[in-house]
Amino acid sequence: MSWVNVGEVYYMVSRKRNRRAAEKSLDYLLNSPIQIVQPGPQDFIDAARLKATRRVSYADAFAAVLAQDRGATVVTGDPEFRALTDIISVEWIGPPVH
């Protein structure tokens, strides 16, 4: 998981619930077996290239670039990732994505 996406999780939980819940989510991520990766210069360019050609957020482009680079699966409930299933593997969680 990219630090960009950790920040996205934090602000989304804070906005939808509250800061305390966001802090708990951050603590969970930092203490989970999920590897958090600092994006490098090429990651920023690759995410920008993907954003320029697909209807996804810049943060989602980071997740996709990392998944491509690592041969990993993105685990998400975010419907924006439907636009990327031809280039990355996605495991859907939450309500069905249509």
Plain-language structure description:
The protein is mainly alpha-helical and 98 residues long. It has a single domain (3-92), classed as Rossmann fold. Helices cover 53% and strands 8% of the residues. It is built from four helices and two strands; from the N terminus they run H-H-H-H-E-E. It has helices at 3-16, 19-30, 41-53, 58-70, and strands at residues 73-76, 89-92. It has a two-stranded parallel sheet with strand order 1-2. The protein starts with a helix and ends in a 6-residue tail after the last strand.
Distance between the termini: 25 Å
CATH class bucket: Alpha Beta
Number of helices: 4
How many DSSP-defined strands? 2
For the record, the CATH architecture stands as 3-Layer(aba) Sandwich
Counting structural domains, the number is 1
Shape: globular
List low-confidence stretches.
Answer: none
- Radius of gyration from the alpha-carbon trace, in angstroms: 13 Å
- CATH homologous superfamily heading: 5'-nuclease
- Would you give the CATH topology? Rossmann fold
What does the main sheet amount to? 2 strands, parallel
Overall average residue pLDDT: 95
Q: What is the N-to-C order of secondary-structure elements (H for helix, E for strand)?
A: HHHHEE
